[in-house]
Amino acid sequence: MQIWDKRYAGESYAYGTQPNDFLLENAQTLPVGDTLCLGEGEGRNAVFLAGLGHRVTALDSSEVGLGKARRLAADNDVRIDAIHADLAEYDIEPGRWDCIVAIFCHLPPDLRRKVHGQIAAAPRPGGRFILEAYTPDQLALGTGGPGNAAMMMDVASLRDELGGLEFEIAREVVRDIREGEFHDGMGATVQLIARKG
User: Fold this and answer.
1) Segment 182-192, tens digit of pLDDT
2) CB within 8 A of 3, min separation 6: which ones?
3) Domain locations in the chain?
């Protein structure tokens, strides 16, 4: 059983059922349309966006997580398209998306650069990419995240990897994160909203 299947195997939702705080705060600025949620897990962000009228495709490598995402969508009377796929093998279609969401989607560096290169080309004109991820400073806090600095991000690395997108918000913050059992306490994150011109 892969690590994420194990994490999502319980009855409770590992990161809760409410959307990520940064996504919630900025949802009204995002274009409503075809929306891709990467590393979506148990579906909390996908279901929230579907409730706002987005046509959501939720992608994750854990079928266990996606099963719970489908259940959460049904419980909230919304529809999401949940796709079981590994980002190492999934091609993000260029010019296809109005909004792309990556919330705490930490990848090995080579794969992250590949995925971010695809993300830079994926939005339609005026489309947005929204991301929150842990920075290396999170290692000292120990309240969530991959435990490997190479899988974390900062503003400088994102500028390098997302060429072609215009950054509207790009900041590193320490904030109180209360998003389920596995994100609980002060966290050092990078927050980003970028626009395709």
Assistant:
1) 898 999 999 99
2) none
3) 3-196
- Per residue in 65-124, pLDDT (tens digit) is 999 999 999 999 999 999 999 999 999 999 999 999 999 999 999 999 999 999 999 999
Cα 121 from Cα 58, distance rounded (Å): 19
Residues 6+ positions from 80 with CB-CB distance below 8 Å: 43, 46, 47, 50, 56, 57, 58, 69, 70, 73
DSSP secondary structure code for residue 180 in this structure = S
Identify the CATH number of the domain defined by range 3-196. 3.40.50.150
Which amino acid does the sequence have at 84? H
DSSP annotation of 102 reads E
24 C-beta neighbours (distance < 10 Å), count = 12
The amino acid at 173: V
Record the pTM: 0.97
DSSP assignment string, 36-65: EEET-TT-HHHHHHHHTT-EEEEEES-HHH
37-70 per-position pLDDT tens digit: 999 999 999 999 999 999 999 999 999 999 999 9
- The whole-number average pLDDT for the span 169-190 is 95
Coil, helix or strand for 184? Answer: strand
Phi then psi for residue 97, to 5 deg, are -115, 140
Q: Residue 140 region, left (φ>0) first, then alpha (ψ -120 to 50), else beta?
A: alpha
